[in-house]
């Protein structure tokens, strides 16, 4: 655990000389930010120092960026049932070093998180072992089998922030319709994967590369068709719906049209689909086998447009740890998924460094938008909000090295990648949970 | 190196005017990316191997004392025998290992198998596997050259080489010929390797198949796609048939084998659409009456038996080319 320490939260801390970016208030100023008892007390160009407590710690941010901590809406963790891939503790360490202060844990565990006791287990384990906030989501259908809905009301009361069948797309339109209708009564958010099981039975994006490599392709329609179906069902039921990870330009249009019709829908994208395309698979490199699959460069550009224009709401890591048993296999036999908590910010910042998306917009997609959608108080630097923040250098160059990863799994699509922008401090409720030396 | 510099001038004078580029590939995993010069080198050497194979005394000591392992995750009597005979003719000790994919799935992963085999110090490994990319994955763990004997729907490089040799020997050239590849293009590694090789050698490649067996972007590989034999065959110098797996004809890609034969089977009438001196090829094993009529398979235009003969020669040439001369070591 080099380079990170947990300190007791001082009652008061003043961050000075910071470039404060808060997408929630559309703020990008040079100034100070005062945190008292884990909450943001004041923010301004130059805060008066006379009323500070004696014990107040003053931190010189040296002009670097102070922003709301990242909120990651899609993180798979192996606990319970797959602790060899990732535990809540190891995921929290990875998250803290990546600037993620809150993450939604997907219910795709063994057993599946589909009852209130398991939600309580996650919350309890997180309280004991995690430095960052872990928000459990619950299965939408019992056992994620797509047949009968879970106890949405009880799970909601137990603290599930959203309902999802995780990696699986709900096949039955009737089940999806009922779940949207019933969840609507509780104001619960449904997060859905959209990949038709039969049409999307391939292993990589359908296209020239798949043809050349002799691999079965996943056509773009495998995503668009279930997404269009779900939009119809949302219109029918008036439920709250979030498409977890879209990957094609047509999906952006589908979401955009639904929003124009005043449906309560939002869309996220995995950062891999913004930073990579299907050429990156190279010679059958399974760490690039993800779901949704890496698409063509045309689609990648369309997704970047979607992030810039606001049609895509949020960026997630789609963190999905796997070990060699499921990854060091022939491409068609390997599992989908790559880890991403530690590269989420840096990979997203590529869009800023290529002048495609403004920095404040990227931070909005990474913090404010997911926080708002999930009903969290974080994702903002507004006065009174919890001090969940990152201090980062948006330009610092670094290379991702496999051996330096904190995640328990090594299946990153960014091994050896050259990045610009790194987290220096991660702060959760005023407490520094991660600090990079030097 | 320094020692030879004084003699290099005279050595250059004595050298033949044209020397083929040295063959520098470590493995033969696919045709894609191999230079035209390397392909020509292999075909030229294979020509010589044909002559050797036709002698009474066929065995050469070229690779004697070396060990060849044939590792087949898919059953294939003919390809495996072809590699085995080629290995024996070069003087190698040949071990055949047939691995049932099911037993591999139970425990040992492909990479475990690779590590185990590598510890046995083979000098050449021939691998067939049902998953695309599996042979390349395995080659990463091997310190000896690896020959891909077919990986999923990806590549089958020695098949393409033997097809090219057959074409070159019957037609005298490959450049400028019109070659039609007919059948299950979508799932065929033979088609992919042949497309790469024939394009590299300057042939004009057509693919003919029903749309369900023709991947959309196939034309981007440098071929012209046709949806009927009647449109695609006229003017062709070579008609290359592909084997169609019976499981594809149960309704998911093709309604039935008799419907397939009606529209895509190679009958005498369809052969007549191609050039009068066109040759008919098939990688085998054939489904007579499904993709090819019996009288065509055995007819005068068929070079199917010759393809099998060329297979041994091409594999001898590949083994010899991949093998480092004594003293250089395989682990470098």
Model description:
The complex is a heterodimer of chains A (438) and B (332). With 438 residues, chain A is of the alpha/beta class. Chain A has twelve helices and 17 strands. In chain A, helix 6 packs parallel to helix 7. The longest helix of chain A is centred in the middle third of the chain and has 17 residues, at 221-237. Chain A is globular, with a radius of gyration of 21 Å. Residues 1-6 of chain A have low confidence and may be disordered. Chain B is an alpha/beta fold. Helix content of chain B is 38%, strand content 13%. Chain B contains 13 helices and nine strands. In chain B, the strands form two sheets. Chain B has a five-stranded parallel beta sheet. Chain B is globular, with a radius of gyration of 21 Å.
Number of helices of chain B: 13
Spatial ordering of strands, largest sheet of chain B:
7-6-5-8-9
Unreliably modeled segments of chain A:
1-6
User: Mean pLDDT of chain B, nearest integer?
Assistant: 89
Which spans of chain B have pLDDT < 50 for at least 5 consecutive residues? 1-7, 326-332
Helix fraction of chain A by DSSP (H/I, runs of at least 4): 25-40%
Percent of residues of chain B in helical segments? 25-40%
Rounded radius of gyration of chain A (Å): 21 Å
Derived from helix and strand composition plus strand pairing, the structural class of chain B reads alpha/beta
**What fraction of residues of chain B sit in β-strands?**
5-15%
For the CA atoms, what is the radius of gyration of chain B? Answer: 21 Å
Shape of chain B: globular
Structural class of chain A: alpha/beta
Total beta-strand segments of chain A: 17
Main sheet makeup of chain B:
5 strands, parallel
Q: Between the first and last Cα atoms of chain B, what is the distance in angstroms?
A: 18 Å
Number of helices of chain A: 12
Give the H and E element order of chain A: EEEEEEHEHEHHEEHEHEHEHHEHHHEEE
The largest inter-chain interface, given as chain pair and residues per side, is: A-B, 19 and 25 residues
Using the alpha-carbon principal axes, give the shape of chain A.
Answer: globular
Oligomer class: heterodimer
